[in-house]
């Protein structure tokens, strides 16, 4: 059984929020950790472009 934890991540001095998000996503998509992407999936977005700044600037979708 897999377990997860959510850790807070703040943008550091001189770092944008988009850069902080990109760093976290790149860490999670590390080919060494995911057997070259075997364990990466996404819902309604492309894992390759999710860190694109325009994605995070879109208005929130209604539930």
List keywords for this structure.
2 helices; 63 residues; mainly alpha
Q: What structural class do helix, strand and pairing data support?
A: mainly alpha
Q: Main sheet?
A: none
Distance between termini?
Answer: 30 Å
Indicate the mean pLDDT. 75
Helical element count? Answer: 2
The rounded Rg comes to: 13 Å
Taking pLDDT < 50 over at least 5 consecutive residues as the criterion, the unreliable ranges are none
Give the CA-based shape. globular
Our estimate of the beta-strand percent is under 5%
Strand tally is 0
Query: How much helix is in the residues?
Result: 25-40%
Give the SSE order as H and E letters: HH
Question: How does this model look, in words?
Answer:
- It is built from 2 helices and no strands.
- The protein is mostly helical.
- The protein has a domain at 17-57.
Topology readout:
Layout: H1 17-28, H2 53-57
Task: Please summarize what this structure is.
With 63 residues, this protein is mainly α.
